[in-house]
């Protein structure tokens, strides 16, 4: 027990990182929480009603604490963009995979409405990435006793998270898989590795610090605690467990030597995320800076991802993974938790 496990009311200060994009699973969250860690569900694509439903379904599977994660919208993302040149740019890829652009971009769920629904559902904890929750949400969470966790990629972000009244901070090093979510400085200036970031954040804030990025086994946990962290958040390691929503092809790639090479790219979603390098990333690398922001780029890539998933074609999929991916074992979440504890 330490101050993080006391705050979260969990037996072991191990957080299962949330997965966005529809690959979080209630079964994974409940398996981790039932094993004494904190299971987390990534809810950024869910409607307010779906969020209520997920919280209920998790509650039906575990009496232990868990967390729900939301992406904070970033300035300028809702601005209108002329999609025509982007669709034209992607046309050869659509043709190659035999898909057609549907002509419509589905609106992303409204963040304030998601948050309102989530607060009504009163999960034990809510985590945020890519920014800060609004003041009204922090106030409502405090009244309800919901533990709020922010995600920082720099020391400055950790300080702002603490000053905003959040209860704990995830310090996410640039080693981490998936979306990390720098929000104060450009991503290029927010690439501090976990080893450098954790002790600096631990020195800078008084709230509990959760180390994320590159932790996948007991050695990583020991190192994180030695660096001053109160706990760890593991994403890629849990992605490889039986209960995650990772596709077969994603699992296969995580277990292959390809997982030794990951890069940060915004080609799939419009926001920077770390994944295994594949043909699509190499082919479109020159366009990194030109693609429209999230959620537009995410929507434009959706038909390609769907077709590639159906074909089991790893070259066109977003294969999110952190730099420690080769350390991830293939086992159940409970077995993995046991190995970490
Ligand atoms: C497939 C995948 C999806 C992710 N989606 C989210 C997300 O929606 N929200 C979030 O806060 N973090 C997300 N992350 C980050 C993880 O929760 C966690 O912080 C990170 O994976 C830790 O680094 P590691 O991969 O080296 O363990 C994602 C990570 C992966 C691998």
TrEMBL record:
GO terms for molecular function: dioxygenase activity; nitronate monooxygenase activity; nucleotide binding. It comes from the Bacteria. InterPro entries: Aldolase_TIM (IPR013785), NMO (IPR004136). The keyword Kinase does not apply. Transmembrane segments: none annotated. It catalyses: 3 propionate 3-nitronate + 3 O2 + H2O = 3 3-oxopropanoate + 2 nitrate + nitrite + H2O2 + 3 H(+). Keywords: Detoxification, Dioxygenase, Flavoprotein, FMN, Monooxygenase, Nucleotide-binding, Oxidoreductase. One of its GO terms (biological process) is response to toxic substance. Its cofactor is FMN. Nitronate monooxygenase that uses molecular oxygen to catalyze the oxidative denitrification of alkyl nitronates. Acts on propionate 3-nitronate (P3N), the presumed physiological substrate. Probably functions in the detoxification of P3N, a metabolic poison produced by plants and fungi as a defense mechanism. Belongs to the nitronate monooxygenase family. NMO class I subfamily. PANTHER family: NITRONATE MONOOXYGENASE-RELATED. This is Probable nitronate monooxygenase. It comes from Cryobacterium zongtaii.
């Amino acid at each position: 027990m330490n101050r993080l496990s006391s705050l979260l009311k969990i037996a072991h200060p191990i957080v299962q990182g949330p997965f966005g994009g529809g690959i979080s699973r209630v079964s994974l969250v409940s398996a981790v929480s039932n094993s004494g860690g904190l299971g987390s569900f990534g809810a950024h694509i869910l409607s307010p009603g779906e969020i209520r439903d997920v919280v209920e379904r998790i509650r039906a599977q575990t009496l232990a604490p868990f967390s729900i994660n939301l992406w904070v919208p970033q300035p300028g993302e809702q601005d209108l963009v002329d999609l025509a040149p982007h669709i034209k740019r992607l046309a050869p890829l659509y043709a190659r995979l035999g898909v057609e652009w549907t002509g419509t971009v589905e609106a992303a769920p409204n963040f304030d409405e998601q948050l309102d629904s989530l607060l009504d559902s009163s999960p034990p904890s809510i985590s945020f990435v890519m920014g800060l929750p609004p003041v009204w949400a922090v106030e409502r969470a405090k009244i309800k006793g919901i533990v709020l966790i922010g995600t920082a990629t720099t020391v400055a972000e950790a300080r702002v998270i603490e000053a905003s009244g959040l209860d704990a901070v995830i310090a996410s090093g640039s080693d981490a898989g998936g979306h990390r979510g720098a929000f104060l400085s450009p991503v290029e200036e927010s690439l501090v590795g976990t080893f450098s970031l954790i002790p600096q954040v631990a020195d800078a804030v008084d709230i509990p610090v959760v180390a994320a990025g590159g932790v996948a086994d007991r050695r990583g946990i020991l190192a994180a605690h030695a660096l001053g962290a109160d706990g760890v958040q593991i994403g890629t390691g849990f992605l490889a467990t039986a209960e995650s929503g990772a596709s077969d092809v994603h699992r296969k790639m995580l277990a292959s030597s390809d997982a030794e090479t990951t890069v940060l790219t915004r080609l799939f979603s419009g926001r920077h995320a770390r994944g295994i390098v594949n043909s699509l990333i190499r082919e479109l690398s020159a366009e990194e800076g030109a693609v429209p922001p999230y959620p537009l780029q995410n929507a434009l890539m959706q038909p390609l991802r769907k077709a590639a998933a159906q074909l089991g074609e790893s070259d066109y999929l977003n294969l999110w993974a952190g730099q420690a991916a080769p350390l991830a074992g293939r086992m159940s979440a409970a077995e993995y938790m046991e190995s970490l504890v």
